[in-house]
Prior knowledge:
The structure holds 2 protein chains of 2 kinds.
Chain A: H1 2-28, H2 33-38, H3 44-54, H4 60-72, H5 86-121, H6 126-139, H7 143-157, H8 173-206, H9 210-217, H10 222-230, H11 236-244, H12 246-259, H13 265-274, H14 278-306, H15 309-313
Helix pairs in contact in A: 1-14, 5-6, 5-8, 6-8, 7-8, 7-12, 8-11, 8-12, 9-10, 11-14, 12-13, 13-14
Chain B: H1 7-17, H2 19-38, H3 74-110, H4 112-126, H5 130-141, H6 145-155, H7 157-172, H8 175-182, H9 187-223, H10 235-243, H11 251-278, H12 280-283
Helix pairs in contact in B: 2-3, 2-11, 3-4, 3-6, 3-7, 3-9, 4-7, 5-6, 7-9, 8-9, 9-10, 9-11, 10-11
Amino acid sequence: xxxxxxxxxxxxxxxxxxxxxxxxxxxxxxxxxxxxxxxxxxxxxxxxxxxxxxxxxxxxxxxxxxxxxxxxxxxxxxxxxxxxxxxxxxxxxxxxxxxxxxxxxxxxxxxxxxxxxxxxxxxxxxxxxxxxxxxxxxxxxxxxxxxxxxxxxxxxxxxxxxxxxxxxxxxxxxxxxxxxxxxxxxxxxxxxxxxxxxxxxxxxxxxxxxxxxxxxxxxxxxxxxxxxxxxxxxxxxxxxxxxxxxxxxxxxxxxxxxxxxxxxxxxxxxxxxxxxxxxxxxxxxxxxxxxxxxxxxxxxxxxxxxxxxxxxxxxxx
Amino acid sequence: xxxxxxxxxxxxxxxxxxxxxxxxxxxxxxxxxxxxxxxxxxxxxxxxxxxxxxxxxxxxxxxxxxxxxxxxxxxxxxxxxxxxxxxxxxxxxxxxxxxxxxxxxxxxxxxxxxxxxxxxxxxxxxxxxxxxxxxxxxxxxxxxxxxxxxxxxxxxxxxxxxxxxxxxxxxxxxxxxxxxxxxxxxxxxxxxxxxxxxxxxxxxxxxxxxxxxxxxxxxxxxxxxxxxxxxxxxxxxxxxxxxxxxxxxxxxxxxxxxxxxxxxxxxxxxxxxxxxxxxxxxxxx
Lengths: 317, 285
């Protein structure tokens, strides 16, 4: 398990660099939180006093290691604006973002897998060409644009679903679903294109294998060959791409939460940025980046578990 | 020293086959580009001039694409917005192309410690979801055309570095490089005369693909209110403005959305075509 130890070490280094880089970006770049809190009419004395209260007058690296120390014990500091613990704020909003991303992935896979299976039944056929064109079109659709178009179609024109706003699951299960369906569609309708292309191309490769020929020769119906014999060995790349796409999905979630006014981590971050709430931005960005790195790490590991060759090829180079 | 001897035939065959598929996207991109360049000489109304009495007017002969929430001419804003999109879309990947290309080529050529350092640097930049990093940069750099370009340029460094590194790795061990080294060529000479010309086509294809990605990213930043500052028109910002009046004046959001969609779609078409020409393996997919 030597490769595993090395991967964990690499993970730790990347996480350290990521938090440090976030700290540097947030702290070096201009924008003084004391001025934002006190307003532009504040006297220099007031500003200096507040900076001392907030601990902003100490050297930056000292503050970083202080922050890192508490972050490791789960304390991300308190918001400069309202004193709310950042870790608590993230924990409150995380379920919304997670629900959004999981629903988006389900929609994406729900379209991508059947579309890929139907496409490879007759490569170059009508369905294959139509789904490829649809994928090309959706790929060129920015998510913020798709969100607006969906709101226009389903809320304004058809009046079927709420345009914005969020209903917690504890309040109404159906209401919650209704408020999440358009946001997740916005992300899922773009995400499926990549998944479909990858799966389709892997399926085509698998279908040339001898064991598929054997299955066909045995007289199995085509759908059985596709679903039970070809699908599983063709899904390795799909899993990797699912992991790689998380980054885009997180970015997409920030935008979608903003469009649909969902109280998720993305909107927390945007609020922090607009308010120059350094400690909140530092906490959320570090949290998002660390989560992203961890997910990619897990996907890599999963990949290695599924396909032992990977351990020797991928992690050596 | 180019290995593209076999590729032009593929290109010629494709071009004859797909003439309309080339003409439409190319025509649209050229139209947008020409309008953006000549915007000042077209006699368009000031894109920032407000006429509140004329607000949210649907398209008419007076206002070809209607007016927005503040009574500004949409056609004029779309064309000046195209200028914004193109400036950011072309300059930001170019910045990434220069810095990332230099990092990638030296990493792939020298290997060893430099490579390790470069890969580590790329890993750290890639550890941030792109949009989140862009948001943080522009939020603290301050919003301006230059800063948005700078932030998105930094974002495109890792991808450019990866593409150039992978291509350099493929060329660095070829016989002609060995030959150049044997006759005593310096590293600098090998890099600029032997490696660079072979890596450039792939980098160029990358740049084309990156343009549409960056145009979308700029749109997203402006949509969130953290991109191009307010009076200056940007497609993303226009879509965000139009969102408020989606029920009474849907054209204020849908027209910029359609223009952006067509532009990105056309650029993707062209990018795919160029990529197929540069990398014949991909065209098989």
